[in-house]
Design brief:
The protein has 200 residues and is an alpha/beta fold. The protein is 28% helix and 11% strand.
Length: 200
Protein backbone atom coordinates (compact mmCIF):
# COMPACT_ATOMS: atom_id res chain seq x y z
CA UNK A 1 0.00 0.00 0.00
CA UNK A 2 1.26 3.45 -0.87
CA UNK A 3 1.13 5.90 2.02
CA UNK A 4 0.08 9.16 0.43
CA UNK A 5 1.03 12.56 1.66
CA UNK A 6 -1.14 13.59 4.53
CA UNK A 7 -3.94 15.91 3.55
CA UNK A 8 -6.67 17.66 5.43
CA UNK A 9 -9.46 15.25 6.20
CA UNK A 10 -7.35 12.14 5.85
CA UNK A 11 -7.60 9.44 8.48
CA UNK A 12 -4.87 7.00 9.36
CA UNK A 13 -5.67 3.36 9.92
CA UNK A 14 -3.25 0.92 11.50
CA UNK A 15 -1.60 -0.10 8.24
CA UNK A 16 1.86 -1.61 8.33
CA UNK A 17 4.77 -0.30 6.33
CA UNK A 18 5.51 -2.06 3.05
CA UNK A 19 8.94 -0.87 1.98
CA UNK A 20 8.40 -1.73 -1.68
CA UNK A 21 5.51 0.70 -1.85
CA UNK A 22 7.31 3.84 -0.70
CA UNK A 23 8.17 6.33 -3.40
CA UNK A 24 11.79 7.43 -3.52
CA UNK A 25 11.12 10.35 -5.83
CA UNK A 26 11.04 13.01 -3.12
CA UNK A 27 10.25 16.63 -3.78
CA UNK A 28 13.61 18.33 -4.23
CA UNK A 29 13.03 21.89 -3.04
CA UNK A 30 15.93 24.01 -1.94
CA UNK A 31 16.44 24.17 1.80
CA UNK A 32 17.92 27.45 2.90
CA UNK A 33 19.95 26.39 5.86
CA UNK A 34 17.41 26.35 8.67
CA UNK A 35 18.54 22.88 9.74
CA UNK A 36 21.90 22.47 8.04
CA UNK A 37 24.34 23.72 5.48
CA UNK A 38 23.56 20.89 3.05
CA UNK A 39 20.81 22.73 1.19
CA UNK A 40 22.68 22.47 -2.11
CA UNK A 41 22.68 18.68 -2.03
CA UNK A 42 19.51 17.11 -3.38
CA UNK A 43 20.40 13.78 -1.78
CA UNK A 44 20.47 15.24 1.73
CA UNK A 45 17.26 14.20 3.46
CA UNK A 46 15.68 15.94 6.44
CA UNK A 47 13.62 14.02 8.99
CA UNK A 48 11.76 15.72 11.82
CA UNK A 49 10.14 14.00 14.79
CA UNK A 50 7.22 15.83 16.39
CA UNK A 51 5.51 15.35 19.74
CA UNK A 52 3.14 17.38 21.88
CA UNK A 53 5.80 18.95 24.09
CA UNK A 54 9.04 18.05 22.37
CA UNK A 55 10.54 17.19 25.75
CA UNK A 56 10.82 13.39 25.65
CA UNK A 57 9.39 11.22 22.88
CA UNK A 58 10.52 13.33 19.91
CA UNK A 59 14.03 14.10 21.23
CA UNK A 60 14.57 10.49 22.28
CA UNK A 61 13.45 9.18 18.89
CA UNK A 62 15.76 11.71 17.25
CA UNK A 63 18.78 10.47 19.21
CA UNK A 64 17.88 6.79 18.69
CA UNK A 65 17.66 7.21 14.93
CA UNK A 66 20.90 9.20 14.83
CA UNK A 67 22.60 6.41 16.73
CA UNK A 68 21.29 3.71 14.39
CA UNK A 69 22.42 5.46 11.22
CA UNK A 70 25.76 6.71 12.59
CA UNK A 71 27.66 3.73 11.18
CA UNK A 72 25.57 3.13 8.10
CA UNK A 73 25.48 4.26 4.48
CA UNK A 74 23.16 7.06 5.62
CA UNK A 75 25.84 8.75 7.71
CA UNK A 76 26.23 12.35 6.59
CA UNK A 77 23.20 12.10 4.31
CA UNK A 78 20.46 12.76 6.85
CA UNK A 79 19.47 15.69 9.01
CA UNK A 80 17.46 14.36 11.96
CA UNK A 81 15.69 16.83 14.24
CA UNK A 82 12.89 17.10 16.79
CA UNK A 83 10.29 19.69 17.63
CA UNK A 84 7.30 20.16 19.93
CA UNK A 85 3.97 21.45 18.70
CA UNK A 86 2.75 23.28 21.80
CA UNK A 87 4.13 26.79 22.11
CA UNK A 88 3.92 26.88 25.91
CA UNK A 89 6.65 24.20 26.09
CA UNK A 90 9.06 26.06 23.82
CA UNK A 91 12.54 26.08 25.35
CA UNK A 92 11.53 23.85 28.26
CA UNK A 93 14.25 21.44 29.45
CA UNK A 94 13.92 17.96 27.97
CA UNK A 95 12.93 15.23 30.39
CA UNK A 96 16.36 13.78 31.10
CA UNK A 97 14.92 11.41 33.69
CA UNK A 98 14.72 8.96 30.84
CA UNK A 99 18.51 8.89 30.70
CA UNK A 100 18.76 6.73 33.80
CA UNK A 101 16.44 4.18 32.20
CA UNK A 102 18.19 4.33 28.84
CA UNK A 103 21.74 4.20 30.24
CA UNK A 104 22.29 0.66 28.95
CA UNK A 105 21.54 1.81 25.40
CA UNK A 106 24.22 4.50 25.42
CA UNK A 107 21.63 7.03 24.29
CA UNK A 108 20.91 10.19 26.23
CA UNK A 109 18.99 13.37 25.58
CA UNK A 110 19.70 16.89 26.73
CA UNK A 111 19.02 20.50 25.93
CA UNK A 112 15.65 22.14 25.51
CA UNK A 113 12.53 21.66 23.47
CA UNK A 114 11.95 23.71 20.34
CA UNK A 115 8.61 24.79 19.01
CA UNK A 116 7.86 23.58 15.49
CA UNK A 117 7.63 26.79 13.60
CA UNK A 118 5.71 26.09 10.37
CA UNK A 119 8.82 27.20 8.49
CA UNK A 120 10.57 24.14 9.95
CA UNK A 121 8.04 21.84 8.34
CA UNK A 122 8.73 23.31 4.92
CA UNK A 123 12.27 21.98 5.12
CA UNK A 124 11.37 18.42 6.10
CA UNK A 125 11.26 15.53 3.64
CA UNK A 126 9.78 13.19 6.26
CA UNK A 127 7.69 14.25 9.24
CA UNK A 128 7.10 11.56 11.87
CA UNK A 129 4.48 12.32 14.48
CA UNK A 130 4.64 10.69 17.89
CA UNK A 131 1.08 11.56 19.00
CA UNK A 132 -2.30 12.87 17.90
CA UNK A 133 -1.48 16.46 18.87
CA UNK A 134 1.43 16.62 16.46
CA UNK A 135 -0.69 15.01 13.74
CA UNK A 136 -3.28 17.75 14.16
CA UNK A 137 -0.56 20.41 14.06
CA UNK A 138 0.84 19.06 10.81
CA UNK A 139 -2.64 18.89 9.31
CA UNK A 140 -2.77 22.66 9.65
CA UNK A 141 0.79 23.59 8.71
CA UNK A 142 2.38 21.01 6.41
CA UNK A 143 2.99 22.18 2.85
CA UNK A 144 5.43 19.51 1.62
CA UNK A 145 7.15 16.32 2.65
CA UNK A 146 5.77 12.96 3.66
CA UNK A 147 3.95 12.51 6.96
CA UNK A 148 3.92 9.22 8.89
CA UNK A 149 2.46 8.57 12.32
CA UNK A 150 4.94 6.62 14.43
CA UNK A 151 2.33 3.90 14.82
CA UNK A 152 3.12 2.81 11.24
CA UNK A 153 6.50 1.64 12.47
CA UNK A 154 5.22 -0.33 15.45
CA UNK A 155 4.75 -4.12 15.37
CA UNK A 156 1.69 -5.65 13.78
CA UNK A 157 -1.09 -5.86 16.33
CA UNK A 158 0.15 -2.86 18.31
CA UNK A 159 -2.24 0.03 17.90
CA UNK A 160 -1.75 3.65 18.79
CA UNK A 161 1.08 6.05 19.41
CA UNK A 162 3.81 5.92 22.02
CA UNK A 163 2.11 6.61 25.39
CA UNK A 164 2.34 10.11 26.77
CA UNK A 165 5.14 10.00 29.38
CA UNK A 166 3.24 12.37 31.67
CA UNK A 167 0.00 10.44 31.86
CA UNK A 168 -0.65 8.96 35.27
CA UNK A 169 0.58 5.42 35.65
CA UNK A 170 1.08 2.95 38.47
CA UNK A 171 4.61 1.93 37.52
CA UNK A 172 6.82 4.80 36.34
CA UNK A 173 9.79 2.51 35.71
CA UNK A 174 7.78 0.24 33.45
CA UNK A 175 6.24 3.25 31.72
CA UNK A 176 9.61 4.73 30.77
CA UNK A 177 11.08 1.40 29.72
CA UNK A 178 8.09 0.80 27.45
CA UNK A 179 8.66 4.19 25.82
CA UNK A 180 12.34 3.37 25.28
CA UNK A 181 11.79 -0.09 23.80
CA UNK A 182 8.91 1.07 21.58
CA UNK A 183 10.93 3.96 20.16
CA UNK A 184 14.00 1.79 19.59
CA UNK A 185 12.01 -0.81 17.68
CA UNK A 186 10.14 1.83 15.70
CA UNK A 187 13.36 3.58 14.67
CA UNK A 188 14.85 0.30 13.46
CA UNK A 189 11.74 -0.15 11.33
CA UNK A 190 12.14 3.37 9.98
CA UNK A 191 15.59 2.43 8.73
CA UNK A 192 14.50 -0.88 7.24
CA UNK A 193 11.21 0.24 5.73
CA UNK A 194 11.58 3.92 5.00
CA UNK A 195 15.22 4.93 4.66
CA UNK A 196 15.99 1.86 2.56
CA UNK A 197 13.92 3.44 -0.23
CA UNK A 198 16.16 6.50 -0.49
CA UNK A 199 18.62 6.84 -3.33
CA UNK A 200 21.64 7.87 -1.28
Amino acid sequence: MMFNKYSKGSEFSDQRVNSSSFSNSLEQTQRKGLFSNHSHDENYTIIIFLSKRGTLRAPFACEVLKNIVSNSKFKGRLGIFFRGVTMVYDKCPVDNRINQYASSTGITIGGRSKFADPEDLKKADFIISMDHESMDFVRLHRVRGYLYPFTFFRPAGVNGFIPDPYESCDDLDSHYREIISSIQLGCRRIVLSLLSTLSL
